[in-house]
Amino acid sequence: MIHNIIFCAVFALQSSSPQTPPLIENHGQFAADAQFPLQSKDQAVHFHGQGWSVVKADGTEFCFQFDRAERELHWSGVTSHPTAMNFCSGPAEDWLLDVPCWESIQSTLRPGVVLQVRSVEQRMKYQLELHAGVTPDDLVLSLPTADQIAIGDVGELMIKVGDHQLVDAAP
Question: How far apart are CA 68 and CA 4, in angstroms?
Answer without folding.
Answer: 11
